[in-house]
Amino acid sequence: MFNRLKEDIACVFERDPAAQSVFEVMTTYPGVHAVLIHRISHLLWNARFLWLARFIAFISRWLTGIEIHPGAQIGRRFFIDHGMGVVIGETAIIGDDCTLYHGVTLGGTSWDKGKRHPTLHNGVVIGAGAKVLGPIEIGTGARVGSNSVVLKPVPAGATVVGIPGHIIGIRPKTPTTERDKIASKMGFDAYGATADMPDPVANAINRMLDHIHLLDKQIDTMQKALNDAGINCLETPISTLDGCEIADSYEKGNQQKTKSINSV
């Protein structure tokens, strides 16, 4: 137990640059308090002192704002940063070197008595406000972006964002830069996100726009080929959808509506 406590304190300095001293961590970090109390309540839960384990977990929630069911299995060097609003369900399993931020929920999607909460493998980081729901597995080194809702398994090294969660990339097994090497060694990305993280919705729209641009080119080529072959193509040119054309079409639509009303 003492060795576990030392590891839990040491990992704070690796993942929180605001930490100044061991005394500060021991006295002002609710995430450390919640993990320490959970390790005690979990021992009591396994020893079948169920009410006492739940009562200690209740006191921990009252003191720290972090709710961890005493039945949850938590590995070594687990860090909850800030912590307020974190909920970890009874059948959740958390591996070594995992990090959770405030507002994270490891919840269930059914009322069945069996396994109904997520399993986090080693080195997982879950950003603030994210919800990971159901008996799914989050692979080693995966990242879940802030406020994401994850309902399906996530492969190792993947980054997931959005509602529902979308995989936007998978980390290479071999880090490519010194910064990536340091981040991989620490097992940490702030809030499960990076500054250059792509937007999956914007990426999808950009791909559609590229496809439309290629279609426009193909239509122009076909029109020229028809005209060269002596077949007159009398189709109205496709709108470029600039601001003036949109305004003109809107004004024409209003004029037509006015004429219809007056005729009535």
Produce a short descriptive summary.
The protein is 42% helix and 14% strand. It is of the alpha/beta class.
How many distinct domains? 2
Helical content stands at 40-55%
- Count the DSSP helices: 7
What is the CATH top level name of the largest domain? Mainly Beta
Shape: elongated
Query: Which percent band covers the strand fraction?
Result: 5-15%
**Radius of gyration, whole Å:** 28 Å
* Stretches with pLDDT under 50, minimum 5 residues: none
Named CATH topology of the largest domain? UDP N-Acetylglucosamine Acyltransferase, domain 1
Give the name of the CATH superfamily of the largest domain.
Hexapeptide repeat proteins
Order of H and E elements? HHHHEEEEEEEEEEEEEEEHHH
